[in-house]
């Protein structure tokens, strides 16, 4: 549940920041009549994301009759989720500094075209986050093997993100977005490693990869999955009482290089001034001036 809450919080805040930039630009440029188009595009993106999540679940539980097919489908979606979450984390770290200016520029172009272009621009800005959330949530929930709770945790994370985004927009709070995205990014890398480990096991269950009976360790006498800490480790990072050699190799092959690259100071760039911001800092100004504080990561 904590893993899916983190997914909802991280992806939700990214989408909320995007929407707040668009809204602030329209408000400050006295184009409030275009706000319905923005909200329409956002609503359509949310509906499509929910439908995509439902389609993943429906495909796994209804369309695929054979257990081997389900295992293979879950393995493929797990790998896809790992690819998306990794790309999202590194993209956000590199692009966040110029995100506000780019969105304002695109929205200016859309305003010149018409209402449909504004709605499409808002839709495209949000739907990527929504589709990523649906895919990552599906894979994380499958690896957690828990019913009901992960969905409520995801919704809770999204609601929390919306609340934080509103407070930022209203200048009611100031948070260090650099630190926030760094910590959540590192945690999501560990979550993605667990998903990758689970996907590897599914490939083994489906007969695509060998070694399903070659165990790397068995600590079932120490780690009880029914305890609260066993549930937390299993749900958050897919730490299980026993794992195959290939699962352990896959987990290490992903988490070690990716985490090192993400945390390596030399790759984080320079000039990250203004890492703490309110809505005015996050969204910048309507005249195109440089933002006071970008969510640099």
TrEMBL record:
Compartment annotation: Membrane
UniProt keyword terms in alphabetical order: Membrane, Transmembrane, Transmembrane helix
Chief location of this protein within or outside the cell: membrane
Bias (Low complexity): 275-290
Membrane protein topology class: Multi-pass membrane protein
Membrane-spanning parts: 6-26, 38-56, 76-95, 107-127, 151-168, 180-199, 245-264
Protein name: High-affinity iron transporter
Taxonomic source organism: Micromonospora pisi
